[in-house]
Amino acid sequence: MGAPVAAADALTLVAALVVGNRSGASGGGRTGNDRPMGDQRDRMLRGEWYKDSDPGLVAERRRCQRLLDRFNATTADGDAERQEILRELLGGIGAGSWIMPRFQCDYGHPITLGSNSFLNYDAILMDCAPITIGDDVSIGPRAQLLTALHPIEDHQRGTVKRAV
Q1: Distance between CA atoms of 42 and 160, rounded to whole angstroms?
Q2: What is the 3-class SS of 38-83, one letter each residue?
Q3: Residue-wise pLDDT tens digits, 95-147
Q4: pTM above 0.90, yes or no
Q5: Which helix (H) or strand (E) is 84 found in, with range?
Q6: Yes or no: is domain 4-154 CATH 3.30.1340.30?
Q7: Residue in 150, 151, 156, 164 annotated catalytic
Q8: Whether 150 is catalytic
C-alpha cells in the first residue's frame, strides 16, 4: 500500500460510471456528503492521483470492510439485515433493489443503486470514483465495475501524480 493511484477519467474507464436509467437511487442510505473531506479523498473523488495510504482513506476502507464482512456473513434468510447494511454502506439504494453476497467494494459511499435494480453474486465495484447504477438494472454474477487506475510508467510510481 501507499503507491499513488488515481480514479480513472472519462477517457480511460469512465470517472462516473453510469448504468441504466439515470433517475438515481432513492429510499435512504448515506450520501457521502456527511463525511469530512480530506485532501486525498477530494483528489480521489475528482479523478486525480492520490495516495491510498492516507489515514482517512484507510479508515474509510476499514469501515467499509467491516460492513462487508457483516453483509457477506448473513444467512439465506437475512434479507432485512442485508438491506440495513446496504443502507449504511452505500451512498444510496432505491426501493426494491438488492445485492447478493458475496459483494466487495472499497468505500461504499460513492455507489448509488436506483430502484428495482439487482447485482448478482460476487460483484466487485472498485469505487474510487462514483458509480451510479440506475433504475431497473440487472447485473449478472461476478461482474466487475472498476474505476481505479494505477500508475503504469516507472517514473510515475512512488509519487503523487496528476490526473490522467
Answers
A1: 14
A2: CHHHHHHHCCCEEECCCHHHHHHHHHHHHHHHHHHCCCCCCHHHHH
A3: 999 999 999 999 999 999 999 999 999 999 999 999 999 999 999 999 999 98
A4: no
A5: helix 79-89
A6: no
A7: 150
A8: yes
